[in-house]
Amino acid sequence: MSETVVSAPAVRRRGAASAAWSNARAVYIIWYRDVLRYSRERAQVVASLAQPLLYLIIFGTGLSSAIGGARFGPSGANYQTFIYPGIIGMTILFTSIFGAMSVVWDREFGFLKEVLVAPIDRSAVAIGKTLGGATRAMIQGLLLLVLAPLIGVALSVGSILGIVVLAFILAFALSALGVALAARMRSMQGFQVVMNFLMLPMFFLSGALFPLSGLPDWMTILTRLDPATYGMDALRRAVLGSAADPLGVSLFGQIVPIWLEALILIAFGLVMLGLAVRSFQVRD
Fold first, then answer.
1. Distance CA 229, CA 41 (A)
2. Which sequence spans correspond to the domains of the chain?
3. Per-residue H/E/C for 216-270
4. Phi/psi zone of residue 226: left (φ > 0), alpha (ψ -120 to 50 degrees), beta?
5. Residue 244 contacts by C-beta under 8 Å, 6 or more apart in sequence?
6. Cα–Cα distance between 263 and 227 in angstroms, integer?
7. What tens digit of pLDDT does each residue of 73-111 get?
8. Interior CA angle at 135 toward 185 and 91, to 5°?
9. Cα–Cα distance between 229 and 93 in angstroms, integer?
10. Residues 17-34: what's their mean pLDDT?
11. pLDDT by residue (tens digit) across 198-241?
């Protein structure tokens, strides 16, 4: 009887392939769990649209009247139209960061401990949570596109596809930031304090509510250090088209192209994801 001899390298390759498949399946399950919970929280989804609508309709209309109907960009967009992409970005920002709260929630109720002792690489938890939060935030932000005709914004199929891609990239970067911070938090109260301290400066410095030109030097530096700035600017230029290009973020006297803003966000998201993976591997 002949026997099949399997070499040690072949065994290692099979083991590595099996481990990679198990980790990929774990990422999918964690992502699917977060998305499924989001789809079942319909009342919360509707309620979470109240804040962006408040900013867009009441804040936008009121401040537009207060500043005397000022116009922005060469197309002469009114203030409400100007902040519309920023409100989409705001929704993505808040949903991404608060979505990471599920990590702390799962830790407090013991679910995270059960996942971490499973025979999978702990990096799958960080990746799955980040992708789940990014998907939720992207969908939440894109829901506001239905308001485009009411704001006077015309969207083509090509611009919508670009907005979807940019929305996911921004959501990924911010979700990775939220997961990296949540991985080090032990209580819901502590996470909320840190997030509120972080989110509001990120939002107000991102240029969602005002142009980033003509600012004091110290504030200009802070806006360029804010990763949300590049996402907000890219979304504005994708939503409003070339008319918003003169309002774009500039570095060293040059307007930053959208593709570079996307790369900055991707790089930031990957760094934050790496920190999140490391946090999961060394804790608990």
1. 30
2. 22-282
3. CHHHHHHHHHCHHHHHHHHHHHHHHHHHHHHHCCEECCEECCHHHHHHHHHHHHH
4. beta
5. 73, 77, 85, 236, 237
6. 11
7. 555 677 888 888 989 999 999 888 887 777 777 776 666
8. 75
9. 11
10. 77
11. 888 999 998 888 888 888 889 989 999 999 999 999 998 888 87
